[in-house]
Write a structure and sequence with these properties.
The complex is a heterodimer of chains A (about 325) and B (about 525). Chain A has about 325 residues and is mostly helical. Chain A has 14 helices and no strands. The chains are: A mainly alpha (about 325), B alpha+beta (about 525).
Chain lengths: ~325, ~525
């Protein structure tokens, strides 16, 4: 297992750096000039051509793609992600100052989704074709179909404007977390619920479930101990993927709730072609994706004794 | 399994209890004379916020006349190469440091960094404790406009608030100015708390606190205003940030007030005059005749704003006040001019052809332009009526295209304060050293250079009149409408007045009514 983890981590180095280089290449071919966007915001007006040229020379933006890339790789070897062209701050500091907010929102939404989705999915499968099943399916379909921005505005209107129970935006207290977490958790829980339901329905027809029932085990033991455990692999994979997606920042929800996470900053950086931020953030986000996928793989082995890494399956 | 059920039930109860606890007693934070302002940008990311904390050397009125600021008076030598500034006495920075000639020189040196006009300055000398002289190598007419604060808003910072102290290139460590408000607390991309500067040299604001709340989404901002969590929106953005379509709803709401202000910034379509078809003046004129600005504005914006038929707002001190008749809508004249230019045949779709080629052009729209997407569609539909196929291309920014000339029409805006009169020429669009593919001519270059290098105001007026006359005849762009700024506030906000430029926030008379 340890060999497997080390091997995966080694391979992931190429994935992480590769993702960064690809993002840099893609942004390079997109029309537009970072100097103009950044100076427009700084000067509160259109920059003069001379100002744009001065900025480009100062930050090496006049160099070719390969020169800029090699300069960035040299910095990376020294564990330096560079400095944001927009803010003048270190990319790592920019990331670290925003990541706690993103992590808080991602973990809360995931927990909320898991707590709501897994029991409902199981119940829906066990009470297959009952009223509960129909209601759960309709609600989950609604949750999957509803765009985040619309749900966010709807929740703000109901709980903030009409009822006045919760703040409509902000960060810092638990009350600020409720609406963004529910917004993100709703879509995720709908996906998980449908997956959990389908997985349980599939295993309920298996021979080992029939055997368990024939042994005289009560229904909750059959479901909880035998069926549920065997449905965890696809569910865990989806939870992992969704969590990684949330950790990479959720732009629209962050923008609507004025949540100071990495998503909104990253999109602003993409719009202004702030190369050091884009490359640095993509590198760190790719690292999270790799780690979460690795954790999910390890989880497989823990929950399913048939899966063993390192050559013996 | 019983344990599993119990655990699940306990979790659900805990979540419900948490929700009850956090919503119980929730109320919007506020205290008397505190204004909570919704802002779509972070406090330190824009000039508008900094201008509450920092003062500028001079200010201006809404026509562009220079008024005293930290400099009480000034005069240029007869050749215009020496500017003597007499500084206001009794001004202190928020940290208690006195504002004097030494710190003014420090501020001027800071303003010079990265500024394209720094090449015009040879030296800055301290003459006395309250007098500073700026020595130019050539008369630079718009220098004082550059000192009104919209650019390099944090130039006149306390010299000890940068690291290393007194180094003009030093990094800001504290936001300490001489302005009407002190920055008491700042949370990046969340909020900034400003408190009244009790030692302010000018008229002290009546508000004791201003909270700058970062709320980037315009629709969420509207909800927050309705929920009473914000007092005012649309104020800290220089372009109108409140969606125009929502203004009617706010105007009808008895609990809200809407205030709309023109700053003379027109939305325009810039022609690429260096390639066909717009190198031909007849085509440029035809386009100006083809656009029905009145219908466009009324259908999109109702009575919120007005069409503009001149290149620049004539109210500005050096603006086109000599042009009495703007561009008019006249489809017949447009068709006649197109015919004269050789666009004779129409295909089955009604598109004009010349030498077998259809009349197809590309409009570049950058995402930062106010109402750009809506305007582009209306222009497209109006041009279709005279047989022109307009393709709309949207980009996040268009500097590269502007430089290389890969556009036919470019949605942009006219110059307004404080960039007028600089906005018409030096370094900007219509001088040959400005936008490479905008309208240029040798005559215009000479006029611009002579207008902005003379110290005699009557000569400057004559030259400016000639510039506007020449530009108006040349049809270098299609002016569309006045991009007004809309501010929406709770009814408890009283005495609000708009700032002198779209970048300045005026909170002098604003109060929060307690009734």
């Amino acid at each position: 297992m340890i060999k497997f983890i080390l091997y995966r981590l080694f391979i992931s180095l190429f994935v992480i750096v590769g993702a960064s280089i690809i993002s840099f290449a893609l942004i390079s071919i997109v029309p537009g000039n970072s100097a103009e966007s950044i100076l427009s915001a700084e000067l509160a007006n259109d920059p003069k051509l001379e100002e744009v040229r001065f900025f480009m020379e100062k930050h090496g933006l006049h160099n070719t793609f390969l020169i800029q890339l090699s300069q960035w790789l040299k910095m990376l070897l020294k564990c330096n992600l560079g400095t944001s062209l927009r803010t003048g701050e270190s990319v790592l500091i920019e990331f670290c100052s925003r990541f706690p907010a993103t992590l808080e929102l991602a973990v809360s939404s995931t927990l909320l989704a898991v707590i709501a989705a897994l029991p409902l999915g199981i119940l829906s499968a066990v009470k297959h074709n009952s009223l509960i099943d129909h209601i759960s399916r309709i609600v989950s379909l609604w949750g999957v179909s509803m765009p985040n921005f619309w749900l966010a505005l709807l929740l703000i209107w109901i709980f903030g404007v009409v009822l006045g129970l919760l703040p409509t935006y902000g960060y810092g207290e638990i009350k600020h977390l409720v609406l963004p977490a529910v917004t993100l958790g709703t879509g995720m829980s709908a996906i998980l619920m449908r997956l959990q339901r389908a997985s349980i329905l599939e295993v309920l027809n298996k021979n080992y479930i029939r055997t368990a029932r024939a042994k005289g085990l009560n229904e909750w033991s059959v479901i909880g101990k035998h069926a549920f455990k065997n449905t965890l692999i696809p569910v865990a994979t989806t939870i992992g993927t969704q969590l990684a997606h949330l950790l990479s920042g959720v732009v629209i929800v962050e923008q609507i709730f004025a949540w100071p996470g990495i998503g909104h900053f990253l999109v602003d950086s993409i719009n202004t072609k702030d190369f050091p931020v884009i490359q640095g953030f993509v590198l760190i986000i790719a690292f999270f994706y790799v780690c979460i996928n690795l954790a999910v793989d390890i989880f497989y082995a823990l929950f399913d004794p048939r899966i063993r890494y390192g050559g013996r399956n | 399994m019983t344990n599993f059920k119990q655990l699940y039930l306990a979790s659900v109860v805990c979540i419900l209890l948490c929700i009850v606890c956090i919503t119980d007693g929730y109320c919007v934070e506020n205290s008397p004379q505190t204004l909570i302002m919704g802002a779509q940008k972070d406090f330190l990311a824009v000039a508008e916020g900094k201008l509450l904390v920092f003062d500028s050397l001079v200010t201006l009125d809404d026509s562009g006349n220079i008024k005293p600021g930290l400099a009480e008076s000034w005069n240029f030598s007869t050749d215009g190469k020496i500017l003597t500034l007499v500084l206001r006495s009794g001004v202190i920075y928020h940290d208690g440091t006195p504002f004097d000639a030494k710190s003014a020189k420090f501020g001027l040196e800071r303003a010079k960094i990265g500024a394209y006009w720094s090449k015009y300055i040879d030296d800055i000398n301290i003459v006395s404790d309250r007098t500073v002289q700026v020595l130019f190598n050539t008369y630079y007419n718009t220098f004082l406009l550059n000192m009104t604060g919209a650019w390099q808003a944090d130039s006149f910072i306390s010299p000890s608030a940068v690291n290393p102290a007194w180094n003009p290139e030093g990094k800001i460590i504290k936001y300490i100015g001489t302005g009407a408000f002190k920055l008491a607390d700042y949370k990046k991309e969340r909020e900034a708390l400003l408190i009244r500067n009790e030692n302010y040299w000018g008229i002290k604001p009546k508000l004791s606190k201003v909270v700058w709340k970062y709320t980037p989404d315009p629709y969420a901002q509207i909800m927050a205003l309705k929920a009473g969590e914000l007092d005012i929106i649309g104020l800290p953005e220089h372009h109108s940030s409140v969606p125009f379509m929502k203004l009617g709803e706010f105007a009808a709401n008895p609990d809200m007030l809407v205030s709309i202000q023109s700053y003379g910034r027109y939305q325009v379509l810039e022609f690429n005059c260096h390639k066909p078809p717009f190198e031909d003046i007849r085509i440029r004129k035809a386009f100006n005749y083809a656009i029905d600005r009145e219908t466009m504005v009324r259908s999109l914006f109702g009575n919120i704003t007005d069409p503009s038929c001149l290149i620049t707002d004539p109210k500005f001190i050096w603006g086109p006040s000599n042009i009495k008749k703007g561009y008019q809508h006249d489809v017949e004249k447009a068709n006649q001019l197109l015919l004269e230019a050789g666009w004779l045949e129409k295909d089955e779709n009604g598109i004009l052809h010349k030498n077998g080629k259809p009349f197809e052009i590309e409009l570049l729209v950058t995402t930062g332009e106010a109402n750009g997407d809506m305007i582009a569609l209306v222009v497209q539909s109006q041009l279709k009526k005279i047989g022109i196929n307009l393709k709309i291309k949207t980009l996040t920014n268009g500097w590269d295209k502007r430089l290389t000339g890969e556009y036919d029409l470019f949605l942009h805006h006219s110059g307004c304060l404080p960039s007028i009169p600089g906005g018409i020429g030096i370094g900007d669009k219509y001088h040959s050293k400005g936008w490479p593919h905008a309208y240029h001519s040798k005559e215009l270059d000479q006029l611009i250079e002579s207008a902005f290098t003379t110290i005699d105001e009557s000569i400057m007026r004559q030259k400016c009149d000639s510039i506007w006359e020449l530009l108006h005849q040349a049809n270098p762009c299609i002016p569309l409408y006045d991009i007004k700024k809309a501010v929406v506030m709770n009814k408890k906000v009283r005495g609000f007045k708009h700032g002198v430029t779209m970048f300045h926030i005026n909170l002098t008379d604003t109060v929060i009514a307690n009734d």
